[in-house]
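Researcher: Please translate sequence to structure tokens.
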Amino acid sequence: MRIAVVACGKIGLPLAVQYATQGHQVVGVDISERTVALINDGVEPFPGEAHLAERLRAVVSAGRLHATTNYAEAIPGADAIVLVVPLFVDEGGAPDFALMDAATTSLAQYLTPGTLISYETTLPVGTTRTRWVPMIESISGMREGKDFHVVFSPERVLTGRVFADLRRYPKLVGGLTPEGAAAGIAFYEQVLDFDDRPDLARPNGVWDMGSAEAAEMAKLAETTYRDVNIGLANQFAVYADEVGIDIQRVIEACNSQPFSHIHQPGIAVGGHCIPVYPRLYLSTDPDASIVRDARAFNARMPEYVIGRIEDVLGSLEGLKVAVLGAAYRGGVKETAFSGVFASVDALRARSARVAVHDPMYSDAELLAFGWDPYHLGDEVDAAIIQADHVQYQELCPSDLPGVKLLFDGRRVTDPQRWVGHVRMVIGAPNRAHIEE
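Model: Translation complete:
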């Protein structure tokens, strides 16, 4: 097959490489000339994706993958087009379709008959049918279900392990017609392989969701569930702080039964998915109060942590506080919706002197965000672990000279290393704050 992949980012490029590895001819489309140039040189544009570097070199060298900024080069004659264009939300939580509108308009201008179009970007329920199809039909002059097919098939992978996740999780496909669904299923069965999953209710592989709307909701539901679950865990943890209970023991006890799967509380919920997709769900189901309340509770956690530090140390004015971790989660060089932003803002609002440390970011990169870099070994009054980088697991007081309080917002440090020093976590009795 000839396949066009629109948007060669941290998901799109591994998809393009996966398809090319399966023997298909792939053209990647991206608006970044730098990204296109690096791909055509066989060089990964971003680090950290397992197996991407060697697989990219192989398929580029074999002539099965090249990239372009030109839709006129990529779209005509394609058997399938896969879109992984970013969708953002504005400050009010409403979806911002600008980039996807632009990509859809561009591909529709060059669409040729017989093409399958698959949207993989997470969307509000109903978007594929009511927004993209009318747009494509109006621009191309062709009819969906007759001249081309459109399906929604959400990406279900995490950056850093895309190739493994493509094999592990069922590929969900929702069509607008039975013929379109069949075309989508046939496409993905040719480009993906699947691990054996005896734990699943049906064999691992490509699953027909029955409609584009069901596939859209499946993606939103699986991620919104995580946000709601974390929100519940955070609410339990805040209550545990009030009454002097170790929430970790409670969660471990609850999860020893198969009917309970409480997630871990923490200082923040970040990334492109968990903080965003509940808002996309709410955009079409505004009465979902449980979803809204969980999202709001999670968003307040950085402020809650700073408040607890203030309860112990008093005024933070003039104190030097290090936020450890700019990334939204450990091992990933990405700050999307990271708790670092709210944490820094809350500290600056209290006139603290704030510095940020992250082993994955250079001083210049931290400065570009407007943060003073912090280096382990520098004097500091307090420190907050915001990201669960593996490097922080061995942290001890000597790494933070002068520290009066460590707030471990991810419970990654060893309490035994902090005997005699103030170490706080979310959801622990007051007597555990100072390890003795």
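Researcher: Any highlights?
Model: Residues 431-436 have pLDDT under 50 and may be disordered.
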